[in-house]
Amino acid sequence: MKTVRLLDDGDRDALRERFGERARFAQPLAPFTWWKIGGPADALVDVESAEELAFVLLRVRKRRLPMFVLGSGSNLLVGDGGIRGIVLRLEGEFSTLDVRAENGTVIAAAGGSASLPALCAQVATLGGIGVDGLAGIPATVGGAIRMNAGTDREIGEFAREVIVQAPARPEPHRVDVGWRYRQTSLPRDAIVARAELRFERGDAAAVRERLQSRLVRRKATQPVAIPNSGSCFRNPEGDHAGRLIEAAGAKGWREGGAEVSPLHANFIVNTGGASARDVATLLTRVRRAVQDEFGVELHLEVHLVGEFH
Ligand SMILES: Cc1cc2nc3c(=O)[nH]c(=O)nc-3n(C[C@H](O)[C@H](O)[C@H](O)COP(=O)(O)OP(=O)(O)OC[C@H]3O[C@@H](n4cnc5c(N)ncnc54)[C@H](O)[C@@H]3O)c2cc1C
């Protein structure tokens, strides 16, 4: 099947003129994902300010171009055929992070691409209670908000203000967000430009210790050294996807270079050269095995994007 190219020469010229080398075309996305998998983006554009983002969003609206925003790529399976349209990365002012203590609280003001691990470390130093629940999640703040990332505590519990930009309204504006397990009510095309998180302030040494022990536990229970994308499936009500997958006998199953991690059954690892098709096939096999064995339907936590043919 012929690939549809939605960007035309006018779009490419406009992006080149405004962004210079920060606009790249037919750019493979594998290096930008934790799985190290994924075909090319028609255009990959690094935007460094709200104005630059608004410029792209206006063009996306005017030309009805598809658009996708990339965080740190830790929850993404990008198809081998790549992503049509414009893929955005937030840089520059979007990566700023300001953490301060104020009236018995710790406040973190973060750009959409600020590092969540860096935020956790700084908030812990000031004694932000509960931040250990976000420790070790390799996310940008924007990606974490989109996913309502967390463990026993989720980022939504701490979010006081979320500012987005979107094609329909390109200038930064505040939105109310509904938070659910690994999901939010954010409109699909809303890009988190910045956010403010607030934590009650407690004993810094105790918070740091809890954070550290979470990091140590992760290293022991997750295949952190091999390319992966965290948990592939959301936990079903009252159970754990990893437990069900293991009980269905799927640990160690392989498809090309992809393997159900022998360490943590809800992780799929790229042991070398895995394609998106390998991972997608393995996901289907695992889901079917759990359905057949236990009658439980697993739902994906990882986001599948782009073309898989
Ligand atoms: C080793 C490992 C451990 C993990 N542990 C956990 C865990 O304990 N808990 C947990 O919840 N997750 C975990 N994850 C999954 C992942 O880290 C989270 O889902 C994280 O929130 C993804 O953030 P990201 O910046 O990498 O987003 P990406 O993976 O790049 O993108 C994910 C989605 O968010 C969207 N997005 C990204 N940035 C923005 C933005 N600025 N505005 C709007 N949408 C945006 C993307 O378009 C995409 O739809 C783990 C992953 C790994 C690899």
In spatial order, strands of the major sheet run 6-7-12-8-9
Q: Give the overall average pLDDT.
A: 96
Helix content: 25-40%
Oligomer: single chain
Percent of residues in beta strands: 25-35%
N-C termini distance: 9 Å
**What is the total number of structural domains?**
3
**Order of helical and strand elements:** HEEHEEEEEHHEEEEEHHEEEHE
Form type: globular
For the largest beta-sheet, the strand count, sense and barrel status come to: 5 strands, antiparallel
What class would the helix/strand composition place it in? alpha+beta
Strand tally, please?
A: 16
| Rg, alpha carbons | 20 Å
Question: What's the level 1 CATH class of the largest domain?
Answer: Alpha Beta
- The CATH topology assignment of the largest domain is Uridine Diphospho-n-acetylenolpyruvylglucosamine Reductase, domain 3
Bound molecules: flavin-adenine dinucleotide
Write the CATH architecture name of the largest domain: 2-Layer Sandwich
The number of distinct helices, counting runs of at least 4 residues, comes to 7
Protein name: UDP-N-acetylenolpyruvoylglucosamine reductase
Pfam family, one: MurB_C
Keywords: Cell cycle, Cell division, Cell shape, Cell wall biogenesis/degradation, Cytoplasm, FAD, Flavoprotein, NADP, Oxidoreductase, Peptidoglycan synthesis
Pathway: Cell wall biogenesis; peptidoglycan biosynthesis
SSE map:
Blueprint: H1 9-19, E1 23-28, E2 40-47, H2 50-63, E3 67-70, E4 76-78, E5 83-90, E6 97-102, E7 105-111, H3 116-125, H4 141-147, E8 159-166, E9 169-175, E10 179-180, E11 183-184, E12 191-200, H5 204-221, H6 241-247, E13 254-255, E14 258-260, E15 268-270, H7 276-294, E16 303-305
